[in-house]
Amino acid sequence: MKSTDMALILLAAGRSRRFGYADKLMADLGGRPLGLHVAQCVSEMRWRQKLAVVASDGLRDGLMALGFETVTPASDAGIGDNLALAARQVNSATGVLVCLADMPFVPLTHIKALLSALGDGITIAVSAAGDAKVPPVAFSATHIATLRGLSGDQGARRILISAAVQTVILDAAADELFDIDTVVDMKRARERFR
């Protein structure tokens, strides 16, 4: 599928409990906020629609400067609630790509491979590092209604494990799909930037 026909959903409103009290997505990584790295990467492609679920005003300004429409989640929302909130804003797209803002090293080549994998009966393309299935994930339009009905902290996991779903798994290096959850993770990410 072509990105120009698809919606991009960036989830950038997690509670970051394991990171401590600081706003993880606003933490400096290589001279810009962590939460803008993957946003900048995927913004190199043209999308039918770019949506971000974001709680931080500072991050919201940066995302809007990159052309994202932003929506604000409820304070007690889980990842499923946030994904549903964004999916309800999607208008006439052939599918959606879901990314997490705390994954700064996802390469554009991997994003393009996920989109290319959709079609010919394949309705979901999911990333994997070893045995772990992780975002980013590309969904065809057949799953948008289900995404709109998600809730809680499960995200799209129930869609991914459905026996009726035709899924392709695209492997990537673990360091490309590395997500930053803790201060130790951030330290590793900063060392990679040096």
From TrEMBL:
UniProt-listed InterPro entries: MobA-like_NTP_Trfase, Nucleotide-diphossugar_trans
Record keywords: Magnesium
Keyword presence, Ribosomal protein: no
Keyword Magnesium: yes
GO molecular-function term, one example from the UniProt record: nucleotidyltransferase activity
Domain (MobA-like NTP transferase): residue spans on this chain: 9-161
Pfam families with a match to the protein in the record: NTP_transf_3
Protein name: MobA-like NTP transferase domain-containing protein
